[in-house]
């Protein structure tokens, strides 16, 4: 994040903050949509659909857990 103040910004008293996101945001966004399609598409009731919505928000946690389980196998 770039928070350096230029001469003109110092005179105005305003700070301009530039944020440049990486590709990880796009990957998470596509994964979020994919997880919602997967979980909500398989839901048979409204309650399962709501649970699927929240599972879609935390899909990276499921992914990391499964990877760790896989790596722990002997």
Write down the overall mean pLDDT. 81
Query: How many angstroms separate the termini?
Result: 43 Å
**Computed CA radius of gyration, to the nearest angstrom:** 21 Å
Number of helices: 4
How many strand elements? 0
Task: Explain what this protein looks like in three dimensions.
This protein has a domain at 23-72. Helices cover 69% and strands 0% of the residues. The chain has four helices and no strands. Helix 2 (23-41) packs antiparallel against helix 3. The model has no long low-confidence stretch (mean pLDDT 81).
How would you sum up this structure in a few lines?
The chain has helices at 7-12, 23-41, 46-57, 59-72.
Supply database-style keywords.
flat; 4 helices; mainly alpha; 74 residues; single chain
Walk me through the topology.
Blueprint: H1 7-12, H2 23-41, H3 46-57, H4 59-72
Helix pairs in contact: 2-3
């Amino acid at each position: 994040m770039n928070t350096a103040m230029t001469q003109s910004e110092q005179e105005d008293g305003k700070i301009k903050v530039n944020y440049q996101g990486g590709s990880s945001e796009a990957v998470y966004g596509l994964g979020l949509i994919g997880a919602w399609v997967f979980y909500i598409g398989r839901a048979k009731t409204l309650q399962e659909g709501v649970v699927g919505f929240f599972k879609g928000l935390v899909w990276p946690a499921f992914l990391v857990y499964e990877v760790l389980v896989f790596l722990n196998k002997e």
